[in-house]
């Protein structure tokens, strides 16, 4: 059965919501996250829904860890048919010149390098089994930066570029890539940025961002599954579920 799914960032938020949705549909899951306690809980909840699942602890920016989660997927289930390249972080709202270089390096390593490494090591497995679909979590910030959020936006522009490149370069090999672009979901990632959310930041965001409807992780998980199961038709494009924040 072509139903093996690797999900990074699977412990909480969108990754967890998508994992549980897929678990209820009989997919075999490889759940990847650095958060071991919550990752184990997602695995247990997926198994309670009848899924076969394993959890692999990994820092997605570490090449050895990425090689390991790919190897564990193949060792356990024989292949990888779908890759939900979802792990990412936000950092506090600041103007560009106020960011510390260490903050910049951290978010670039996880949001861009981590996505690239996943692609680098999953694609050879997909080539071997005749194809597959990669879903990259992009963002409304892949199209228009939220105020005081320039570095995060730069990472999501990069992920959009990787998504389009896969769509262009691998379609003939039956490997497809789709981006899913939510806006602000109420997750742990959003909370990590909110520590510097001031009245000034709020006014700047309000003045530069169109009115939009926030989605829950469970709602965006519907879009993740849609993108995953329709890769051939959607490859190189984005499923826009930003509630009107981006008009494309």
Task: Please explain how this structure is put together.
This protein is of the alpha/beta class. It contains 9 helices and 7 strands. The protein has helices at residues 13-23, 36-48, 63-77, 101-128, 150-169, 188-193, 199-208, 217-229, 231-234, and strands at residues 4-8, 28-33, 53-57, 82-85, 132-137, 175-182, 238-241. It has a 7-stranded parallel beta sheet, sandwiched between helices. Strand 5 (132-137), helix 5 (150-169) and strand 6 form a beta-alpha-beta unit. Helix 1 packs parallel to helix 2 (36-48), helix 1 crosses helix 8 and helix 4 runs parallel beside helix 5. It is globular and about 50 Å long.
Short description:
By secondary structure, this protein is an alpha/beta fold.
Identify the overall geometry: globular
| Structural class determined from secondary elements | alpha/beta
- What's the overall average pLDDT, rounded? 88
Give the helices and strands as they follow along the chain: EHEHEHEHEHEHHHHE
**Arrangement of strands in the largest sheet:** 3-2-1-4-5-6-7
Helix-strand layout with pairing:
Blueprint (H helix, E strand, L loop, with lengths): L3 E5 L4 H11 L4 E6 L2 H13 L4 E5 L5 H15 L4 E4 L15 H28 L3 E6 L12 H20 L5 E8 L5 H6 L5 H10 L8 H13 L1 H4 L3 E4 L7
Parallel strand pairs: 1-2, 1-4, 2-3, 4-5, 5-6, 6-7
Structure characteristics:
single chain, alpha/beta, seven-stranded parallel beta sheet, 48% helix, 15% strand, globular
């Amino acid at each position: 059965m072509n139903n093996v799914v690797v999900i990074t960032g699977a412990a909480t938020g969108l990754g967890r919501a998508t994992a549980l949705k897929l678990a209820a549909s009989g997919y075999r899951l490889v759940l990847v996250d650095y958060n071991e306690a919550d990752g184990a809980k997602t695995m247990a909840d997926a198994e309670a829904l009848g899924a076969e699942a394993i959890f692999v602890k990994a820092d997605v920016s570490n090449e050895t860890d990425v090689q390991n989660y790919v190897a564990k997927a193949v060792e356990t289930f024989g292949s990888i048919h779908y890759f939900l390249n979802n792990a990412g972080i936000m950092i506090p709202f600041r103007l560009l010149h106020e960011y510390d270089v260490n903050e910049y390096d951290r978010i670039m390593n996880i949001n861009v390098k981590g996505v690239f490494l996943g692609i680098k090591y999953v694609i050879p497995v997909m080539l071997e089994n005749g194809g597959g679909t990669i879903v990259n979590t992009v963002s409304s910030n892949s199209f228009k930066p939220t105020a005081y959020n320039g570095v995060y936006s730069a990472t999501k522009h990069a992920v959009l570029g990787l998504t389009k490149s896969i769509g262009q370069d691998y379609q003939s090999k039956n490997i497809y890539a789709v981006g899913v672009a939510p806006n602000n979901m109420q997750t742990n990632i959003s909370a990590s940025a909110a520590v510097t959310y001031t009245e000034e930041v709020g006014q700047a965001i309000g003045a530069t961002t169109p009115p939009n409807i926030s989605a829950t992780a469970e709602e965006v998980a519907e879009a993740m599954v849609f993108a995953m199961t329709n890769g051939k038709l959607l490859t190189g494009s984005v499923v826009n579920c930003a509630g009107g924040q981006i008009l494309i």
